Amino acid sequence: MQRLIPFVTALAFASPAISAEIWVTNEKDDTVSVIDIATLEVIRTIETGERPRGITFSKDFSKVYICASDSDTVQVMDPVTGNILHELPSGEDPEQFVLHPNDRHLYIANEDDAVTTVVDTETRSVIAQINVGIEPEGMAVSPDGKIAITTSETTNMAHWIDTETRELFANTLVDSRPRHAEFTAGGSELWVSSEIGGTISVFDTASQAEKGKISFKVKGVHPDRVQPVGFEFTDDEKTAFVALGPSNHVAAVNAETLEVEDYILVGRRVWHMAFSPDKSLLFTTNGVSGDVTVIDVAKREAIKSIKVGRFPWGAALRP
Amino acid sequence: MKPFVVVLIAIVAREARRFVGQRSRFIAALIRPLLWLVVFAAGFRAALGLSITPPYETYTTYETYIVPGLCGMILLFNGMQSSLSLVYDREMGSMRLLLTSPLPRWWLLFCRLLASTSISILQVYTFLGITALYGIRFEAAGYLSVLPALLIAGLMLGALGLALSSFIKQLENFAGVMNFVIFPMFFLSSALYPLWKMAESSELLHDICAANPFTHAVELIRFALYGQFNMSALLWTCGAALILLAIALWGYDPARGMIRRKG
């Protein structure tokens, strides 16, 4: 019995094992829903500023940045306690942002101001504002951190920003209403989705030349409703999963041939997505149906839809 | 015990022979659900997905949703087909010959029921094989766990056919059975649309659907295909099977039922 006491005491005070989580921003509820990947259930709901959309974690996952669009701020939250640590000056109506690989500079698209704001998360100050096209939205940074991309919804362009000089060095036309941009992990390609155009344009990073375009066609769905938005690559970069908005489907695209291989039925108006740590599961945010669909990546099948708050939008992994 | 087994084997073998001899019937029985799947379901909001109701955990296409209902359709129509052939047997006299066996009447009828249900199950599995080729697949365990559900649902619908056959005096009356039994049973069930969808248009229709034993047979099959168990569907289906079997036994009782009426 004597020997048991320290053991039991240690157990009682040990912190519970934390499994990986998916954090989802709920636009209409002003909250974040936290989904436990092991149980596929919502385990926490945390209040945020108004209309949370973009969400990303710091490199060490000690902080989570949330774009509170209608509060005109980026909130910095402690993911353990759920408390807002402080807010960052973000410019007006921040929608999407991206954290530079230096883990310090946030590149924020300010939809109403037609600028990209660069914020130093340590000094909590704006260090640059770069004029871009009208209604900037999609943001990406190359893996080497040298190039930042802003897509502007109305100008229909991808703006290439030199992160050292913080000036535009190229602008490339894409199809109507570009909303999301991602570099491949090697950084050799930039993909930009165009919501109204219904396409993804693929650019060669070195030359900024367009090298391909992906179109989508969902059986039984009017082409106007096939609106590509968020997308993510698998680790081997052979497949990209693309959210197709109000078509309620996610497309699996062969990233080498740029051919669509599968369409997976998810909830209504799918926006963005995040992978589990081993990339075996993909979590898509379905705005209108207010849930998150879990996709088995290997089988390319939806396995469950989890109710979250109203109008879920952004998603981020906390391993 | 041996005579019971002999009779069982004899009746099943007779049904099997009849089945082999009527390959066109087998194909026709498959064409019906396949038309529903390929034409009706494909053209009918196939891409939109239905709201989530158990056993589904996520959105499902309409084509996927109606597969269990179409399995039920095969069992239902086969139950009726078997009822038709019972009426035919009765008119030809072979039924009378069968019922003169010294074994209990309930056993003879049950053997007949089991034989026709086995044929139906074979057709359902063929249908599920074709749907798998069409792209609608279930987990391997689902194909196994659906077997008892198909057996119970098949026995219940076969018992319905048996009960009806005891009241149909002539082969010509069978069209009436189609109009008044099969179609209402099929359309007023969860085979083609979930019950919540019915409730949206009419609470009364929803209640009728919820009381329809065919709904529960379909739900039993649906849950089993996804490796899940639905207790209330099982109780409803078994209860309906027992009641219908009792009616059939009563109908085939020479002192009271159809035999006396037929003179």
From TrEMBL, chain A:
InterPro entries referenced in this protein's UniProt entry, alphabetically: Host-pathogen_enzymatic-act, N2O_reductase_N, PQQ_b_propeller, WD40/YVTN_repeat-like_dom_sf, YNCE-like_beta-prop, YVTN_b-propeller_repeat
Q: Which residues cross the membrane?
A: none
Write down the SUPFAM superfamilies for this protein, in alphabetical order.
Nitrous oxide reductase, N-terminal domain
Residue intervals of the YNCE-like beta-propeller domain: 12-104
The protein's UniProt keywords, in alphabetical order, are: Signal
Please give the Gene3D superfamilies that the UniProt record associates with this protein: YVTN repeat-like/Quinoprotein amine dehydrogenase
Cleavable signal peptide: 1-19
Can the keyword ATP-binding be found in this entry's annotation? no
**NCBIfam families xrefs:** beta_rpt_yvtn, PQQ_ABC_repeats
State what protein this is by name: PQQ-dependent catabolism-associated beta-propeller protein
Please report the organism this UniProt entry assigns to the protein: Shimia thalassica
TrEMBL record, chain B:
Q: Which GO terms describe its cellular component?
A: ATP-binding cassette (ABC) transporter complex
Keyword set, alphabetical order: Cell membrane, Membrane, Transmembrane, Transmembrane helix, Transport
Q: Where in the cell is it found?
A: Cell inner membrane; Membrane
Question: Carries keyword Cell membrane?
Answer: yes
The ABC transmembrane type-2 domain sits at 24-255
**Pfam families of this UniProt entry?**
ABC2_membrane (PF01061)
Q: What sections of the protein cross the membrane?
A: 34-53, 65-86, 106-134, 146-168, 174-196, 233-252
Q: How does it sit in the membrane?
A: Multi-pass membrane protein
NCBIfam families membership: phenyl_ABC_PedC
Per its UniProt record, what PANTHER family does this chain match? TRANSPORT PERMEASE PROTEIN, TRANSPORT PERMEASE YVFS-RELATED
Q: What is this protein called?
A: Transport permease protein
> Which organism was this protein described from?
Shimia thalassica
Q: Which gene encodes it?
A: ybhR
